[in-house]
Specification:
It is found in: Cytoplasm. Catalyzes the oxidation of 3-carboxy-2-hydroxy-4-methylpentanoate (3-isopropylmalate) to 3-carboxy-4-methyl-2-oxopentanoate. The product decarboxylates to 4-methyl-2 oxopentanoate. Keywords: Amino-acid biosynthesis, Branched-chain amino acid biosynthesis, Cytoplasm, Leucine biosynthesis, Magnesium, Manganese, Metal-binding, NAD, Oxidoreductase. The chain is of the alpha/beta class. It has 2 domains: 1-107 and 271-360, Isopropylmalate Dehydrogenase (3-Layer(aba) Sandwich), CATH 3.40.718; 110-260, Isopropylmalate Dehydrogenase. 43% of the residues lie in helices and 19% in strands. It is built from 13 helices and 12 strands. It has helices at residues 19-37, 50-56, 62-70, 93-104, 117-122, 127-130, 166-182, 197-213, 224-233, 245-255, 296-308, 312-328, 341-353; strands at residues 6-15, 39-45, 73-78, 108-114, 134-140, 148-153, 158-161, 186-191, 218-223, 240-243, 268-270, 275-277. The strands form 2 sheets. A 10-stranded mixed sheet has the order 2-1-3-12-11-4-5-10-8-9, sandwiched between helices. It has a two-stranded antiparallel ribbon with strand order 6-7. The structure holds 1,4-dihydronicotinamide adenine dinucleotide (NAI), 2-OXO-4-methylpentanoic acid (COI) and magnesium ion.
Length: 360
């Protein structure tokens, strides 16, 4: 008697710009994994961001949110683009994504950045300084200045509110300390405690959690301006980096200079029942619709999804397949090649299915 395969429900939100292009490749790779590793994925597709506005006058339509709240995992491409620049601030595509993160309770945004010897050769920075970088940014995702109230724009002034509660800082600090324990035992907390009240609280709370609960982890604090400089000049000094929503957003795009492209950086946002998985990059309107986007950031985000649903072997196979494509091609334009987005995705999917890889 055959037993039913493990089945995961996936809400797929392609979004805008290059979002649908890279999401299609991540979905292709997930399907290849399901076939190779004997599980099933039940996928439903929903509009979000500008696509949500066009379909339903809402960047996070009710039906999209409901599907995400019901799913085992949510995969999102990217949102936004110049065609929606004129809409009301609260209806912007990006606001839809922020609401989704909040409603999923996805407060812990994991953004790994790894640079092999081969990638370092392509880095705009000095290869000998970046080769071997392996850092993890743990970004607080559902608080801070992107969410704080009051937030207002009038004819004569505008303001946002940077607000953090002790509880919000404690829970993200614990996630970061746990990762530091699993990795090198080192954690860097990044803030602007010399001028911001929210950062002064951040620093005190992170220090207390470290001293009380994780005395085995070596904790250092850096101001964000110094941290930005050091990410570029001495990236290997970092292992796990914990920071707030705004600083983590900026530092992770900055860290894309290490491999030399945003097209390689994945993310997982955890904390609620279902995780949200998305590439770090945006909708890249400058290259959208032409098959120029690198799908590897999305595909590596799919590997993080597989880890989150405990399909670790499949996640490893995806990472190995990405390595083999990085070694042998086909490469997309941001990595110096001329391969179409779909050709890169197909090569990863083929490598996942290949019997030469070490999976059953
Ligand atoms: N998570 C999300 O949905 C995000 C959405 N956005 C939105 O995206 C739109 C464009 O924002 P930008 O500031 O231009 O940032 P972006 O991340 O879309 O693009 C920045 C640069 O990186 C390149 N790039 C991005 N992804 C790439 C990929 N997969 N392969 C090759 N090159 C890639 C783009 O061509 C561009 O030159 C805006 O509406 C912004 O609000 C921005 C960041 C995150
Ligand atoms: C809501 C997004 C546009 C913010 C962003 O840039 C990001 O999360 O990386
Ligand atoms: Mg960003």
């Amino acid at each position: 008697m055959s037993s039913a395969p493990r089945t995961y429900s996936l809400a797929l939100l392609p979004g805008d710009g290059v979002g649908p292009e890279v999401t299609a490749e991540a979905a292709r790779v997930l399907d290849a994994c399901a076939a190779a590793f004997g599980f099933a994925i039940e996928t439903s597709e929903h509009p979000v961001g500008g696509a949500g506005l066009d379909a339903d006058n809402d960047p996070l339509p009710r039906a999209t949110l409901d599907a995400c709240l019901d799913a085992d995992a949510v995969f999102l491409g990217a949102v936004g683009g110049p065609q929606w620049d004129g809409v009301d601030a609260d209806l912007r595509p990006e606001r839809g994504l922020l609401r989704l993160r909040a409603r999923l309770g996805a407060f812990a945004n994991l953004r790994p950045v790894a640079v092999s010897e081969a990638l370092a050769e392509r880095s705009p920075l000095r290869p000998e300084r970046v080769a071997g970088t392996d850092l993890l940014i743990v970004r607080e995702l559902t608080g801070g200045i992107y969410f704080g109230r009051p937030r207002e724009r009038t004819e004569t002034e505008a303001y946002d509110t940077m607000r953090y509660s002790v509880t919000e800082i404690e829970r993200i600090a614990r996630v970061a300390f746990e990762w530091a324990q699993k990795r090198s035992g080192r954690l860097t907390s990044v803030d602007k405690a010399n001028v911001l009240a929210s950062s002064a609280l951040w620093r005190d709370v992170v220090s207390r959690i470290g001293a009380d609960e994780y005395p085995d982890v070596a904790l250092e604090h850096l101001y964000v301006d110094n941290a930005a400089m050091q990410v570029v000049c001495d990236p290997r000094r970092f292992d796990v980096v914990v920071t707030g929503n705004l600083f983590g957003d900026v530092l992770s795009d900055l860290a894309a200079t290490l491999p030399g492209t945003l097209g390689l950086l994945p993310s997982a946002s955890l904390g609620g029942r279902a995780g949200l998985f998305e590439p770090v990059h945006g909708s890249a309107p400058d290259i959208a619709g032409r098959g120029l986007a690198n799908p590897l950031a999305a595909i590596l985000s799919a590997a993080m999804l597989l880890d989150a649903v405990d399909e670790a072997e499949a996640a490893t196979a995806v990472r190995q397949a990405v390595e083999s494509v990085l070694d042998d091609g086909p490469l997309p334009p941001d990595l110096g090649g001329d391969a179409h987005t779909a050709d890169v995705g197909a090569a990863v999917a083929d490598a996942v299915a290949s019997p030469t890889l070490s999976h059953p």
